[in-house]
Design goal:
- It contains 7 helices and 4 strands.
- The protein is of the alpha/beta class.
- Strands 3-2-1-4 form a 4-stranded parallel β-sheet, sandwiched between helices.
- Helix 1 links the parallel strand 1 and strand 2.
Amino acid sequence: MTTGEPLSSPTSNPSPDGGAGVESGRVALVTGVNNPLGIGAGIAVALARAGVSVFATYLAQPVDDYGLDPDEAALAVEPGEALYRERNSRSAEQVVARMRAAGGTIEAWEADLADPGVAEKLFDRAEAAFGTVDVLVNNAAYCVRDSFLPVERLEGRSATGEFRVATLTAEGLDRHWLVNARAP
């Protein structure tokens, strides 16, 4: 490599300050931006920084979903389950604030993708906000540490919701299988 030779093209720049490898002016749909330190949030912020319009989804999970008392969790100061769950129940706002601070155009929608009606409306809402979706980051998942919950709830929150979003069009189905069934 000679001095001054670019390391990558403008449309595939992986550098943290150069964006997320997507051209400015594109539209991205990013699911699962609940956690400010999570993968979905990191990708959404990088896309926003690169000039991509981001339509993000999150699911605020109340602490009582985990069998915790909301009042006790709100007072938690020690590291542990109660403090983590209480902070995470309202963390999507922090992610949206970070994306806006990065200079991005952002719309956020609370969406439970386990609900078939919600998954079907997702692209409609994103396209109404910004136009045709160019990039799908299908990051939403549901994680429960305990194994006593019915399997259907877990499957409905994770695999089924992700599949619904990825396959809303014939082209989406093809893209889903190409990404999830083989590597480059």
